[in-house]
Amino acid sequence: MRPEPLVYVTIAHLYEDLCRSLDMLRRDDSAVRRSRAVVERALADGGTYYGINTGFGKLARVRIPADQQARLQRNLLLSHAVGVGEPIPRDVTRLMLHLKIHALGLGYSGVSPETFHRLLLFAEKDWVPVVPSKGSVGASGDLAPLAHLALPLLGLGAFWRPDGAGTVPAADVLAAHGLAPIDLQPKDGLALINGTQMMSAYGAYVLEKGSRLVRTADLLAAMSLEALQGSIKPFDARIQAVRPHPGQARVAENVRHLLEGSEILESHRDCGKVQDPYCLRCVPQVHGAGRDALAYATRVVETEINAVTDNPLVFEDGDILSGGNFHGQPLALALDVAAMALAELASISERRIYLLLEGHDGLPTLLMRETGLNSGFMIPQYTAAALVSENKVLCHPASVDSIPTSLGQEDHVSMGSISALKLVNVLRNLEHVLAIELLTAAQALDYRLPLRPGRGVEAAHRYVRRLIPHREADYLFQEDLLPCLDLIRTDALLDAVAEEGCVLA
Q1: Can you tell me whether residue 307 is helix, strand or coil?
Q2: Which residue of 79, 194, 232, 313 lies most exposed, with the fewest beta carbons within 10 A?
Q3: Domains of the chain (ranges, CATH numbers)
Q4: Structure confidence at residue 14 (pLDDT)
Q5: Among 8, 49, 50, 202, which one carries the catalytic annotation?
Q6: What is the 3-state secondary structure of 461-477?
Q7: 50 labelled catalytic
Q8: How far is 9 from 302, CA to CA, in rounded Å?
């Protein structure tokens, strides 16, 4: 039996699927054993099989004697564990481990049951290896990161402590549980380090957070629109229908929903303004394009986490075929696109922040009544501008770069791991920019009282004001930005809006 396909909805949902998959594999590893039997027969038939009885990469033509084939696999892990940089966060590495086990369990890698079950034990005990973040070129899989992921099998490397605060040598953990390091069998090392699990794990991690941020961005746009007395006309369903991108229609619907019952809208319905600046008027088009781009990236990641990205692949008919499923180009492109989508959400958010400070339609300049002595909200916009500018640098696509490796044998690589690492930084910058817009829009809405905004906007504003007061003098902005950042990173604000009947799609 093979594991059921994973359906990526959220990280929590994905972990549920993975845990079911791993539990099934503990009880029924027949696909792994059938695949291993093919490798065992190949070893006995005298043929030449890449990475099983040959060297790797440029050394593929070097035949390895039978009595050295187990050592070959150990050497593979040792020679490839040359990652550098800050460790990958524990929760991302935990996902890497589970995805690697799932891929091996599909039964096309020929890994030995002993090695496979030791990895299952790591997952069961929640022993998460420490993996450096840099060193993969995203072509023959995430070689260096996955080599570090596998080192504890040999009693080398380290595990994270359960709380993520520090690490413990893997040898100490194994010894404390009466376990000896395992001896890798032919093909094991190659099955462990060939694959795209680092890129896939980062993609799943960021895209889940992105699915929340696109809804939060719609909410913040509606708050800013109300504070700036913007027009609801650009969100008319008829406008979206004649340019029927799905994300655009959804964003416009969200904003219309959030503005239902708005007294502010009614107060300026006949004000004579014809058009708002693009950062308000084009929210459906910009936010919507980002949603559609993230949907594409999510489809790629879901395909990848259900794929076998090993080489060579072992098939039930006895064939062992070398191919290129390890190449990270599908993910590299998708993660680059996701970074651009998130960066644009930050970019248009910063423009709304700037607009809120300009003193339009009765709002005080810099959102405080007594400026001069007070700088008001001037400098948070600087921070947003800096983060948006940094994102522009980070959005240079890694996927268009390639540096030959393995003496030219691996002459085109994806650099998808760099796409993944950049994507995380873009995400974090976006979170901070949205936190600044949340703080700024809430301050601006205070000046529209006693007029009430739409019920969704009002619910969000009311929730923010429970945590953060209105300000009329300079203060340490971090006191308010940090709670706003917490709201951006959790479902609390969206849940408060949903309780008022405004569930955002």
Answers
A1: coil
A2: 79
A3: 11-195 (1.10.275.10), 202-312+337-498 (1.20.200.10)
A4: 79
A5: 50
A6: HHHHHHHCCCCCCCCCC
A7: yes
A8: 9
CA distance 505 to 503: 7
Cα separation, 419 vs 202, whole angstroms = 10
- The amino acid present at 315, given as its one-letter code, is F
For residue 338, with 0-12 CB atoms within 10 Å meaning exposed, 13-18 middle and 19 or more buried, which class applies?
buried
HSE (side-chain half, CA atoms, 13 Å) at 63: 6
- Model pLDDT, residue 378: 96
Tell the residue number behind the tokens 């949603």, with chain if given. 291
The whole-angstrom separation of Cα 79 and Cα 385 is 43
pLDDT at 296: 96
pLDDT at 19: 83
Output the furthest CA–CA distance in the chain (Å, rounded): 87
User: How many angstroms separate the CA atoms of 150 and 155, rounded?
Assistant: 10
Which range has the worst mean pLDDT, 303-307, 332-336, 398-402?
398-402
Task: Report whether pLDDT(175) > 80.
Answer: yes
Nearest-CA neighbor of 64 among 186, 182, 193, 189?
A: 186
Residues 348, 283 contacting (CB under 8 angstroms): yes
Distance of alpha carbon 378 from alpha carbon 371, whole angstroms:
10
Q: Is 86 helix (H, G, I), strand (E, B) or coil?
A: strand
Give the pLDDT band (50/70/90) at residue 402.
confident
Q: How confident is the model at residue 360 (pLDDT cuts 50, 70, 90)?
A: confident
- Alpha carbon 183 to its chain centroid, in Å, reads 34
